[in-house]
Amino acid sequence: MNSDSAISSLSPPLRPKSKKNPNAIADDREVITRPAGQKSASRKCANLECYVRATEKPLKACARCKAMMYCSRECQAAHWPTHKQWCQNNVDHVAELAVADALGFDGGLPPGMTLVELDQKLEKWVKFHNSLLMAATIHALSLPRDLKRARQYLLRVKVSWRPDNGGVAAKFFRVDDAFLIDMESARAKGGVWPPSIDHVVKLREESEAMRRGTVAAVALECEPLAMQIVPFGSLRDLSPLRIQQQWKETLIRIAESGRRFTRFE
Ligand SMILES: [Zn+2]
Ligand SMILES: [Zn+2]
Asked: Most buried by CB count within 10 Å: which residue of 89, 93, 173, 243?
């Protein structure tokens, strides 16, 4: 499948409807994207010009990468120029894992598990704990004090497989550690880091150009998988929030409990 075939059957993009968003405030805490290899849950149409939410209309995934969710073919087509490269990365990422599995990769994997399976489990865990990871990012980066810090730092979150998860996705992984890394040091790590950071920058520029707020991100590390970016979008004025200094303890504790995060206590 070539990179254009995913939209070959789509009708040409319609003019984007500029609907006023009646839930601008509530939307601030939402997550905009969920790319595999760069994961996060999607609760609204991935087309930034569209405000349709999953609760209003069932969203359908991009047929190629299964990562981006759209309310319509028009929205998918409108977002394709932005999504195209990312979509390819998603597809490549899964293919690479499958190849490594086929070659018998077993370095550091939980017993009986393939890389593809571990990646899928991580995706489920991230989906469940998305708001927790976003809240940790907001507080760790002190975004209520200055949103621009999202440009300077990533929150590195290191997780490991929990054999005692009881088959519950919320308990698949344990947070071992979490700390800030500045963009320069993150880029200097090489490998998947520079292109992942470039991607966050692109998402942020797009979001800010659309006046949809800024984008912050977690760099999620789960050996032996490569680092994966989890972006959080539509972040606007967070100054009413009181910064929680205990964000790391809370992150570790709530992830451990398998509860869904609602707010910092
Ligand atoms: Zn849409
Ligand atoms: Zn896609």
From this structure: 173
